[in-house]
From TrEMBL, chain A:
The keyword Transport applies. PANTHER family: INNER MEMBRANE ABC TRANSPORTER, OLIGOPEPTIDE TRANSPORT SYSTEM PERMEASE PROTEIN OPPB. Pfam families: BPD_transp_1 (PF00528), BPD_transp_1_N (PF19300). InterPro entries: BPD_transp_1_N (IPR045621), MetI-like (IPR000515), MetI-like_sf (IPR035906). Residues 94-297 form the ABC transmembrane type-1 domain. It comes from Marinomonas aquiplantarum. The keyword Ribonucleoprotein does not apply. Keywords: Cell membrane, Membrane, Transmembrane, Transmembrane helix, Transport. It is a multi-pass membrane protein. This is Oligopeptide transport system permease protein.
UniProtKB/TrEMBL annotation, chain B:
This is Oligopeptide transport system substrate-binding protein. GO terms for molecular function: peptide transmembrane transporter activity. It comes from the Bacteria. Keywords: Signal, Transport.
Length: 306, 538
């Protein structure tokens, strides 16, 4: 196991480097610059700004400056938010998205797996159909529809919840973002769990367990659940990263100040260092959680050995 | 604009003006104020910075007006009223302004606001090392040496600004510019605390370091969530300020903002979604406030490229736009059809109505058809081109409507091309377009803020329109006491004669304002101050 983990870490470094390199050059290839604005800047002023951000040097030099800073943990100054560095902006916004994300993840996991199992065990019953109807609805209903609907219902028609804001993560501010964030994940997890559970319940070892006369709850929780979870877990790894790195929709509609908005705005504003910062964050988390998934696989499935 | 005219007329030696009214929250008698005086405002997108000399764009500008105060403020009609300066003198040839600063003006750390802070701020703005995107703003009134300093040809310390003593600030101009005092309400001319900026450098705007001289001071700034200002107890007119706390919410989506407003979590919005305008007028007519804004929405022709270098083609395309249909049915938020480049709301100048504005649309269409035919385009050889706009629902709707007008009236084949903002700017800058959507909001309330845009060397003249007579009229207007005649001639040349651009409509400012919010006084430049507002008991 130890060699496996160290191998994964060693592999992560070149992967990240490739990711950084490609993103860096792609970003710099986009037309316009962080400082192109409607009103043309005086040449001398533009020259000074460019010099400050090394934009007057060849891209390859800029790349090495960036890597140099990165080695010291410095993600650079924001090209757009001139009063902040990327480290500050990520430190401010990532915890917000992570908090919404972790709650959404837990809700999605519990409800998704729960619904999936119930639907599988009552296959083709009304429970199954309603769970699957909900799942399909959850998948097709995008969160940019769900978010305003939530606000209409919870905040405008009924003054139950604040329509937006964050307030340090007080629970009334958390509910709607979690609903908007988790619904599609609940639906996906329920579908995967159901499919996997049905398959498992038809396998030979479950049939044997039935034949041995084991009680149903023991068959389900002791024997069927583990193999059922394998495909779910491989979905959860990347899903977790997606969920904790936020969503632009949630940030835009609920004004939570999470990191989701930085993805889009960073690219639109040509905030090179912001785009790099979030790319590195997402890249690192993706590699990390893929490794976690692999480890979980080994724990759950005794056939897997590293 | 009555006040400024009087000022200029009486600007003989030392024309001291001090009897002007000072605005702050003027709560009418009988109005009962709410116990909780806290305002939540929509703030548009997150501002790139709050450093007055580095701000560009409305989101930064509206916030800066609560944090800082310049020499002069504006009232609800856009007239100048004293700010940090109580009065000013001007010399005989109108090139030297001496401002007398109030002695009770203080920074939020309790230190006095001095003439030295203004000298520092003005110098900082033109110093290329500051890299102020609004450095050019100091060139417009021709402050001595501003242009040279910006171009790196002179030392920043040679700028024509001087602190005669702690409370006397003098600005020397290279030529008389009648609207100079009006420009002092702009954030680029706001003072900054010299000692604080020197101590913290670029970090001085961080919430924990920032010191300001306006009615409010920074309390909390969480990017993309909120910005909170609280009362600056040291503000000279704090006694007349009513609202204790201002929260700006950076909400880019007008729909999301509307929801906050409807749920009662916001008192004053940044804008409102056009699609909901009619319904809002039905549901909450008292809370929809639409006022004219100093800006024009127009289509730009690439005059470096055939056939757009042909005035007949430009005129035909412009005439065939039914501006009434656009403003009534497509935008529909009280916009005013534009036939001149300068909006009517501008101070001291009323553009004369060009002839084509007086024709019926049918007449315009007929003229347009004749002109296009004359230029060599007909059904067998139709004009076809790309119409460029930056990605946005409203621009798209307008483009579709106008393209169909052109098709129906002139048989022109238009391909719509949308590009995201930065790409669009780049495309326009390099003249890689045929016809492009454009818009311009004035930076100061004087016609040259619009008309300068069409001069040959202007950095934003992306259509590369060039007319020597036009350039001369505007150049001469700079030193004239009453340039209105030149402006009229300029309009006549650029629009009536050359149709350099096709004006479409004059912008409006549209906001949702809770009926319990008093003292909201929008003016054409959107110089709105929270210190003038108050919340009525509700």
């Amino acid at each position: 196991m130890f060699t496996f983990i160290s191998k994964r870490i060693l592999e992560a470094i070149p992967t990240l480097l490739v990711l950084i390199t490609i993103s860096f050059f792609l970003m710099h290839a986009a037309p316009g610059s962080p400082f192109s604005s409607e009103r043309a800047l005086p040449a001398e002023v533009l020259a000074n700004i460019n010099a400050k951000y090394h934009l007057d040097e060849p891209v390859i030099n800029q790349y090495f400056y960036y890597l140099g800073g990165l080695l010291q943990g410095d993600l650079g100054p924001s090209f757009r938010y001139k009063d902040f560095t990327i480290n500050e902006l990520i430190a401010q916004s990532f915890p917000v998205s992570a908090e919404i994300g972790i709650w959404s993840f837990l809700v999605a996991l519990i409800l998704g797996v729960g619904c999936g199992i119930i639907a599988a065990l009552r296959q083709n019953s009304w429970i199954d159909y309603s769970v699957m109807a909900f799942a399909n609805l959850g998948i097709v209903l995008p969160n940019f529809v769900l978010a305003p609907l939530c606000i209409l219902f919870f905040s405008i028609y009924n003054h139950w919840l604040p329509p937006g804001g964050w307030n340090g993560g007080a629970w009334p501010y958390l509910i709607m973002p979690v609903i908007a964030m988790s619904t599609s994940y609940i639906a996906q997890i329920a579908r995967i769990t159901r499919g996997s559970m049905i398959e498992t319940m038809h396998s030979n070892f479950i049939r044997t367990a039935h034949a041995k006369g084991l009680p149903k709850h023991r068959i389900i929780f002791q024997h069927a659940l583990r193999p059922t979870m394998l495909p779910v877990i491989s979905y959860l790894g990347p899903a977790f990263v997606g969920i904790v790195t936020g969503s632009v929709i949630v940030d835009v509609y609920f004004g939570t100040g999470g990191i989701g908005q930085h993805f889009i705005n960073g690219a639109l504003n040509r905030d090179y260092s912001m785009v790099m910062g979030v790319t590195i964050l997402v890249g690192t988390l993706t590699i990390l959680f893929n490794a976690v998934v692999d480890i979980l696989y080994a724990v759950i499935d005794p056939k897997i050995r590293y | 604009m009555k006040i400024s005219k009087t000022l200029i007329a009486s600007a003989v030696l030392a024309a001291s003006i001090s009897a002007l009214q000072v605005q702050a929250a003027d709560v009418p008698a009988g109005v009962v104020l709410a116990d909780k005086q806290e305002l939540v405002r929509g703030g548009g997108s997150e501002p790139a910075t709050l450093d007055p000399q580095k701000i560009e764009g409305t989101p930064g500008s509206i916030r800066s007006k609560d944090l800082f105060e310049g020499l002069y403020n504006q009232d609800g009609d856009g007239n100048q009223i004293p700010g940090v300066a109580t009065s000013y003198d001007v010399n005989a040839d109108n090139t030297q302004y001496t401002f007398h600063l109030r002695k009770d003006a203080k920074w939020s750390n309790g230190e006095p606001v001095t003439a030295e802070d203004f000298v520092f701020a003005f110098t900082r703005s033109v110093d290329p090392a500051t890299a102020s995107p609004y450095a050019w703003f100091m060139e417009i009134p021709s402050i001595v040496n501003a242009s040279k300093i910006i171009a790196g040809e002179a030392e920043p310390s040679t700028l024509g600004v001087k602190a005669l003593d702690d409370y006397t600030f003098q600005v020397t101009l290279e030529r008389p510019v009648p609207y100079f005092v009006k420009m002092t309400s702009h954030q680029n001319m706001f003072p900054v605390p010299k000692k604080v900026v020197e101590k913290w450098g670029d970090d001085w705007t961080k919430p924990e370091h920032m010191v300001s001289n306006g009615a409010y001071k920074m309390d909390e700034w969480i990017v993309n969530e909120k910005m909170v200002f609280t009362r600056n107890q040291h503000y000279w007119n704090d006694a007349k300020t009513v609202i204790n706390k201002v929260t700006y919410l950076p909400i880019e989506s007008p729909n999301a903002e509307l929801k906050r407003f409807q749920a009662g979590q916001m008192d004053l919005s940044y804008e409102l979604p056009n699609d909901h305008y009619k319904q809002l007028l039905r549901d909450i007519p008292d809370e929809v406030v639409v006022t004219p804004k100093l800006g024009t929405y127009y289509y730009q022709f690439n005059t470096t490229k055939a056939p757009y270098n042909d005035v007949r083609v430009r005129k035909a395309l412009s005439y065939a736009i039914d501006r009434d249909v656009i403003t009534k049915y497509v935008t529909g938020v009280g916009e005013i059809p534009a036939y001149s480049f300068t909006p009517e709301v501008v101070n001291d100048f009323n553009p004369e109505t060009p002839d084509y504005a007086t024709w019926s649309q049918k007449e315009r269409n007929e003229k347009a058809q004749a002109l296009l035919e004359e230029a060599g385009f007909d059904k067998s050889n139709p004009l076809s081109f790309k119409l460029l706009y930056n990605t946005n629902e409203n621009h798209k709707k307008i483009a579709i409507a106008i393209a169909s007008m052109w098709k129906k009236t002139l048989g022109v084949q238009v391909t719509l091309e949308n590009q995201e903002w930065k790409t669009y700017l780049e495309t326009k800058k390099h003249q890689q377009f045929d016809v492009a959507r454009a818009g311009w909001i004035g930076d100061y309330n004087e016609a040259s803020t619009m008309l300068d845009l069409l001069t040959t060397t202007h950095g934003n003249n992306d259509g590369k329109y060039s007319n020597a007579n036009y350039d001369k009229l505007l150049h001469d207007a700079r030193t004239m006491q009453n340039p209105a005649e030149n402006y009229n001639k300029a309009e006549e040349i650029a629009i009536e004669q050359d149709m350099a651009v096709a004006p479409i409509y004059q912008y409006t400012e549209k906001r949702l304002v809770k009926s319990y919010l008093g003292g909201y006084m929008p003016n054409p430049e959107d110089n709105v101050y929270v210190r003038d507002m108050y919340i009525i008991k509700h």
